[in-house]
């Protein structure tokens, strides 16, 4: 717009309507403006109220957020404390496990050391069953220096499961001067049928009710005339070559009255489950304990006669120990031979397993009291047998590593 135009307009409109007050401005609707003003004020008030509410909500939300953050922080702190406790417990448990493992290993090493030096005699089941292997030298025929008569008695009662193996272990040795006697106590199993099967190889056999093993032995020995005597229970066996070896030893050593050898332990299936390797004979130890394997025991008739020529029937379990002590009192000279002579069978129905905790303990106590003239304590027994057991351990280890060959 040019200046000339502006001047013309001023001439047409000498007064600016917008410059007039509202009340006097003919171009403005006063009521409408008031309403608009009120609306604006209401809107401003509403906005102010909304702003206040928004601020309050925001402040509330901020407070809630702060509280949540505080709870999260507290929870995190608790979780961290719990983690530390768990970690401490974990480290503690790991430490305890390590200590337990060390203790177990030390105990295991200690047990192995103890087991290595633990006596084998007296222990009837030493390792898992394995085939019984007899050395070739035991199978070889032994040339006889002389043939003294050997009287061997087997007492039996209801051992039909084993007695055939016992009989065969004796007669298959083919010793030319053998008196084999079987005294059965009236068995009601197949024992008598088995004995009859081998009757032609026996000097004498009988089956009648008796008063126990000791009585049966005395009945059997009534028919014995041999220079050498022994008895073999109906579940045990002799090892090959034993009779010839024993005969030669007695012939070569006329000063010896009683002999015995090392023992093999077998189960009901003839499998080996242990071995007793014995040190040389010790007469002092015999008064404290009986470690002489009965199935390997042989003696001269002369010492039998000096000792009373009978088994003491008042003993049901320790009759062999009683006989040995009587031999010793009669002046017998003993020798432990460097050879396994017999095998002792371990099975659930044998008298040794069933009676040792009942009759056996009382009878052994009775024999110790008789030998020492007084009652003896367990500590005394242990003190007096330990040196012998140490020697046994040494002999056993030397045998295991092959230095001693039996």
Task: Give the topology, please.
Elements: H1 3-12, H2 30-116, H3 136-139, E1 150-156, H4 163-171, E2 178-184, H5 191-197, E3 204-207, H6 213-221, E4 228-231, E5 237-238, H7 242-252, E6 258-266, E7 272-276, H8 283-286, E8 298-300, H9 301-306, H10 319-329, E9 334-345, H11 351-372, H12 378-400
Parallel strand pairs: 1-2, 1-4, 2-3, 6-9
Antiparallel strand pairs: 4-8, 5-9, 6-7, 6-8
Write a structural description.
The structure is a single chain. The protein has 406 residues and is an alpha/beta fold. The mean pLDDT is 87. The chain contains 12 helices and 9 strands. It has a domain at 136-400: Spore Coat Polysaccharide Biosynthesis Protein SpsA, Chain A. α4 links the parallel β1 (150-156) and β2.
Quick recap:
This protein is α/β, with parallel strands linked by helices and 406 residues long.
What would the CATH topology of one domain be? Spore Coat Polysaccharide Biosynthesis Protein SpsA, Chain A
Give me the CATH architecture of one domain, please.
Answer: Alpha-Beta Complex
- The CATH C-level name of one domain is Alpha Beta
- Low-pLDDT sequence parts: none
- End-to-end separation in angstroms reads 145 Å
In helices, the fraction of residues equals 40-55%
Mean pLDDT score: 87
Helix-and-strand structural type:
alpha/beta
- Mind telling me the C-alpha Rg? 54 Å
Number of strands: 9
Overall outline? rod-shaped
The secondary-structure element order is HHHEHEHEHEEHEEHEHHEHH
- Counting DSSP H or I runs of 4 or more residues, the number of helices is 12
